[in-house]
Design brief:
4 helices, seven-stranded antiparallel beta sheet, single chain, alpha+beta
Length: 137
């Protein structure tokens, strides 16, 4: 069963301009965790990554993921999401650019533009199945 993000969870995620943490399952079934920038696409969490990175390969092999974003100071607030991920093409790298602008502002530094241009990228689109917020109400 897919779960929509509540207005409180969505507002928290939209205001969070710090990295989230994504966990994918490696070939042997062990979790592999990495800090990631994220954005939104039609109510889903999106993460841009080079197409050859382990998190992209893992997502293609096993779509089960978890994602967490929390404040790092008291009072702690956050949300943990378990879901399934779909690996999608990022035509023209528009989604990566939107995620970068979310963190860096509307004018991206030259090194970020170079980074965007250099690699073949995909987007991991997380469809929430279980959403567990804390201290957001």
């Amino acid at each position: 069963m897919l779960r929509d993000l509540t207005p409180e969870v969505r507002a928290f995620l939209e205001s969070a301009t710090w990295p989230g943490v994504l966990s994918t399952l490696g070939p042997g079934g062990a979790p592999i965790t990495s800090a990631v920038w994220f954005g939104f696409l039609d109510g889903d969490i999106i993460i841009s990554t080079p197409a050859g990175r382990p998190k992209a390969r893992n997502a293609r092999n096993d779509p089960r993921v978890s994602f967490i974003v929390d404040t790092k100071e008291r009072p702690y607030r956050g949300v943990a999401i378990e879901g399934e991920v779909e690996v999608i093409d990022d035509q023209g790298k528009a989604l990566m650019r939107a995620i970068a602008m979310r963190y860096l502002g509307p004018v991206l530094p030259a090194e970020m533009e170079e980074r965007i241009a250099l690699r073949d990228r995909v987007v991991l689109r997380i469809r929430p199945r279980k959403v567990r917020p804390w201290n957001l109400g």
